[in-house]
Automatic annotation (TrEMBL):
It comes from Zooxanthella nutricula. This is Uncharacterized protein. It comes from the Eukaryota. InterPro entries: Ankyrin_rpt-contain_sf. Residues 203-223 are annotated as: Disordered.
Length: 223
């Protein structure tokens, strides 16, 4: 069920050639879904420049290289126009593709907000997720090849504010990355930032919280 995440986490190679008499790659609704997911994850530059040029989508790489700032309303309008022209064996699949792309876009915008310290945008995206019942499925997903969640990224960035927002919204403090670290760990050792402290106190029974807090430094330096 999470296979679509791979397109946003790892470098993606577009194989756009199709047999004669078959509709084109980007005419397919589900291929378009894969394409947009990889674009939102910034995963097209390594293996797909030639394919993008052949498909007339070179601007996707230009936007990616330029650190494109996403506007959800503008993108939603673009998706609606694009999806109206796509082919689906089952017409109702268009609704699934629409939801998938929008969810990935919101996750990308939340990641950008954490990395740039834009807490207002992070709160705004969180409110949108809650309104669509996508909070837990999104917060528990990995966002990069290291299998970090948004909470891992927030702690790695030493962002106490982002960490608090994510925890208050239900982000799991026990999810592990590719190395087996929770958000509060680095190579299995405790991180020493206040953001990491928040995660530890959230994932520790209240009776033990005082002991944990006493062992953790109060500064915001990364481990």
């Amino acid at each position: 069920p999470h296979m679509g995440m791979l397109y946003s986490m790892f470098p993606t190679m577009i194989l756009h050639e199709v047999p004669p008499g078959t509709h084109g790659y980007l005419e397919s609704g589900w291929c378009y879904c894969e394409f947009e997911t990889a674009r939102l994850g910034r995963q097209l530059s390594e293996y797909s420049p030639d394919a993008l040029a052949a498909l007339g989508r070179a601007r996707a790489l230009e936007a990616q290289a330029g650190g494109d700032v996403l506007n959800l309303e503008e993108m939603a309008s673009m998706w609606e126009a694009e999806l109206a022209q796509k082919r689906f064996h089952v017409p109702s699949d268009a609704d699934d593709v629409r939801r998938i792309i929008k969810a990935f876009a919101m996750k990308r915008m939340m990641l950008d907000a954490i990395e740039t310290g834009d807490m207002d945008n992070l709160r705004s995206m969180m409110a949108r997720l809650k309104g669509q019942n996508l909070v837990h499925s999104t917060l528990d997903q990995s966002v990069n090849a290291a299998l970090e969640t948004l909470l891992h990224v927030a702690v790695r960035k030493c962002s106490t504010a982002a960490t608090q927002i994510l925890l208050d919204s239900g982000a799991s403090p026990t999810r592990r990355n590719l190395r087996g670290d929770t958000a509060a760990q680095c190579f299995m050792f405790p991180r020493c930032s206040r953001a990491a402290q928040l995660v530890r106190t959230t994932s520790t029974p209240k009776s033990a919280q005082g002991e944990v807090i006493g062992r953790v430094t109060q500064d915001d330096g990364a481990f």
